[in-house]
Amino acid sequence: MSPSDRPTKNDRREEARAAAAALREKQAKAQARQRTIAIAALVAGLVVVGVLVAVILNQGKTSAGAQVTPEVSSARGGVVFDESGVVIPPADQDTTGDDGSTTAWPVNSGDTPVVSVYFDFMCPYCGQFETAVGPTLDELAASGEILLDSHPVSILDRFSAGTGFSTRSAAAAWAVAEGSPEHYTAFVEAMMAQQPAENTAGLSDEEIAAIATGVGVPQEVADGLADGTFTWWATQATDLASQDLGSLATPTVLIDGVKLDPSTTNYFDPETLKAAIAAAQG
User: Fold this and answer.
1) Looking at the DSSP assignment, which residues form a beta bridge with residue 253?
2) Segments in the chain forming alpha helices (H)
3) In the beta sheet, which residues pair with residue 68?
4) Least trusted range by pLDDT, from 101-105, 236-240, 263-267
5) Residues with Cβ < 8 Å from 176, sequence gap 6 or more?
């Protein structure tokens, strides 16, 4: 190489600068990639944490401990009474007929019809029904002439100004049935006597508890009416009622599982209802 072909000092300096610039650019790109990977990993980690938190919270909402079924409830969500008071459901609640069909307890045991009543504490017609024929049904159950199958349900929360009164009151009824069953019918009667109007906030938890103690429910039971123990079951029992009936309106009355048609049977009239019950007895 001739002296004229050799890089000059300035050329070598420029080449060194270009090489250094290229190295810096390469390093900057590598660092940028590393930051991107780190941020992506952090975001993924936060997503995983968020999912885990959501799962944990959801498990808390639907845990077995929160899904409490009252001991006094039938598998279909009813509280059953005979002449001795509340009837604890049998271990096996299904009866198989000669034709292989299955009937859920309670069932007519020979000459004792099962009268099932579905009601919502916010339903004004349920209040009228309780006033008109509630005492008659209670007397028939106490005399052993019927099994009274009582179903507190919650379908009218939308008419309680966002307070969930239907669900709260149904859950309270279940708590009374479980903790003080001898006062259940009196509690239902008193709740209906002080029934709030639709499209109001309904009764407060404190007012419901006061009604309970007013009919003899022990204070320790009344104190637990608003703790939510049977909120899940109030909703579950309502879902079961909807499944069994196809569509759920209140009040609905069944005799031995057959729904009475209010257009042909005025079951708000005690004598008409008693005649329908007698006809079911054969």
Assistant:
1) 117
2) 9-62, 124-142, 165-179, 184-193, 205-214, 219-222, 231-245, 270-281
3) none
4) 101-105
5) 183, 184, 187, 212, 217, 221, 225
**106 cis-preceded (ω within 30 degrees of 0):** yes
> In this predicted structure, which of 15-19, 199-203, 256-260 has the lowest mean pLDDT?
15-19
Q: What pLDDT score does 48 carry? A: 38
Tell me whether the omega of the peptide bond preceding residue 3 falls within 30 degrees of 0, making it cis: no
Helix axes 205-214, 165-179, angle to 10 degrees: 30
CA–CA separation, 60 and 63 (whole Å): 5
**Tens-digit pLDDT profile for residues 207-247:** 999 999 999 999 999 999 999 999 999 999 999 999 999 99
Q: In the predicted model, what is the mean pLDDT of the chain?
A: 84
> Strand 85-86 relative to strand 252-255: parallel, antiparallel, unpaired?
unpaired
Please write down the long-range contacts of 15-22, taking CB distance under 8 Å and 24 or more positions apart: none
Report in angstroms the alpha-carbon separations of 100 from 93, 110, 114: 15, 19, 21
